[in-house]
From TrEMBL:
Residues 1-32 are annotated as: Disordered. This is DinB family protein. Pfam families: MST. Residues 22-32 have a biased composition (Acidic residues).
Amino acid sequence: MARMTDRPARWTQATVYPDMWTDPDDDPREGDVPEGELATLQDYLTNYRRTLRMKCEGLDAEQMARRSVPPSTMSLLGLLRHLAETERDWRNWITDGEPQPKLYGERDGDFDGAVPDQAVVDAAYADLEREQAAMDAALAGHEDMGARLGREQVTVRELIVHMIEEYARHCGHADLLRECVDGRVGQ
């Protein structure tokens, strides 16, 4: 098992700009800038979701579960699980019915259960994909950014901005975690 003090050589897959993760022509986040507030916010959220996945690409279960610095339990796998849990929690904010139970049980179960097992990695990806799709479906049709939803009466705008903030913060963590795992750097 690699220790965090074992510094891997820094590298990037990009050949055009050395500070990028990949070349612009290969970047799935590149494209036309949408018009309108809702479309713009949805585009930012989609791109942060993609960034998190990109930071996890090509790693095995041990690398995905590798912890950052003690006493933190943070890992790339833990981030996938945490954001699946968070997507479910956000959906609970905007529903009128009973909230869905936590995916991973007790507090910090998302990080504590991030163990180096390929089945756990596969389940985390499936959970994240399912919860993102469910959240997108729950928001579909709510084009009024000021509309208040669910028991919490949160506005669509506030919810989407909060989601972008959460993903952006954790993508920053993913940058550092990935660099510690194999030295790969870039936006």
